[in-house]
Amino acid sequence: MTAELALNGVSCVRGGRVLFGRLNLRVPAGQLLRVQGANGAGKTSLLRMLCGLLPPTDGQVLWRGQPVGELREEFGRELIYLGHAAALKDDLSPLENLETACALGGTAAGREESLAALQAAGLRGFEHGPARRLSQGQRRRAALARLAMGVQRPLWILDEPFNALDAVATTWLEGLMSDHLARSGTVVLTSHQGTPLPGVPTQVLAL
User: Fold this and answer.
1) pLDDT at 126 over 70
2) ∠ at Cα 25 (32, 45), nearest 5°?
3) By the 8 A CB rule, do 65 and 26 touch?
């Protein structure tokens, strides 16, 4: 089956409130999906459904034509999900955080490859100090370095990945995503910025 992400009649009800209902969508390989909406519209809930972390109230999320809830570990090996928070352990260094995240995600992370990813993210000189010393922008870059280690994962789901990034880091992240899409990967993201990556196939889903 092709690496297509699909929503079939997906609805979300949280706390008795309907956040969205009956979403139908196809996101083929090589395409970017940008999810937009006001705070509380259900953007993060939708991303968690796409990852299989939250079951839809109704409908199905499909990956390669199969419900993600049934794929379990198989789906996890094809996915990178980065949430809104950087989710770094303060007592670990950026290098240790990256190696740990890769190991938990089932990706072999060599020391030199991990260092190169952090340096490409603009963290040269900060690889070995505790993460608590990093600025918010540096913490975000340390988390996003996981993408440079996950080029073989076809599906990237990113919650506000551009938050706290300066212009240089934004350009670096845009390059990672453009390269991934050119390799027939799929990217789903939320962003309060303008639509990123002009010129690439993009869908916008407004909640």
Assistant:
1) yes
2) 80
3) no
Phi, psi of 155 (to 5 degrees): -115, 120
- Per the CB < 8 A criterion, the answer to whether 114 and 78 are in contact is no
Q: To which residue do tokens 């599906």 refer?
A: 155
DSSP string, 178-198: HHHHHTT-EEEEE-SSSPPST
Place of tokens 């490409």: 120
Q: Which residue's structure tokens are 């639509």? A: 195
* Strand, helix or coil for residue 23: strand
Enter the tokens of residue 87: 């989710």
**Tokens at residue 77, please?**
């090996």
**Which residues lie closer than 8 Å to 32 by C-beta, 6 or more apart?**
177, 181, 186, 187, 188, 189, 196, 197, 200, 201, 202, 203
How far apart, in whole angstroms, are the C-alpha atoms of residue 39 and residue 163? Answer: 15
CA distances from 54 to 16, 61, 125, 135, 199 (A): 16, 10, 38, 31, 32
The pLDDT value recorded for residue 100 is 93
Helix H or strand E segment including 32: strand 32-36
Q: What is the DSSP string of 70-114?
A: HHTHHHHTTEEEE-SS----TTS-HHHHHHHHHHHTT----HHHH
Q: What is the pLDDT of residues 13-68, one digit of tens each?
A: 998 999 999 999 999 999 999 999 998 999 999 999 999 999 999 999 999 999 99
The answer to whether residues 42 and 149 touch, using CB atoms and an 8 Å cutoff, is: no
